[in-house]
Amino acid sequence: MPTKSELIKRQQSPLNNPSDIAPGAVKDISGALNALLADVFCLYIKTKNFHWHMSGPHFRDYHLLLDEHGDQLFAMTDEVAERVRKIGGTTIRSIGHIARLQRISDNDAGYVTPSDMLSELHENEKELVLSMRAVHTLCDDAGDVATASLLENWIDQAQRRAWFLFESTRPLVS
Prior knowledge:
By secondary structure, the protein is an all-alpha fold. Helices cover about 75% and strands about 0% of the residues. The chain has helices at about 5-10, 25-50, 60-85, 95-100, 115-140, 145-170.
């Protein structure tokens, strides 16, 4: 009769993915990427929330901008999760798991002005960049160049989104 620990090990074995990255580093990088993934999902939902509730004279421009940003964020989620699996980790499993890991705050307000929406998303994108830089450092220390390379692209994308959001909130100069 197998022991409980043997049964648990056998149950988890289909998810084992051998990796050339040290097990401790896999755990650290996977944990950091899962927190990043939770933040990306949170920012995606917030971006779509603001996209759906946009109003005002610049409605069309902002609505389209946030739709584009949402598409980029959603595309990133699969890449982050698959990277966790490629290095031998496991990733988030539910909305509850996302809620426990997210560091970017939700916005459930009934009404947010367009400029406040864009400013809040700008700040969130800057937070995301800082988080990604911290994960990049973990990857550098572990010799995980593939994840570091992906992070460099994601950082560039987030900086571009932050730039567009910043420029969209600047007052017109006459």
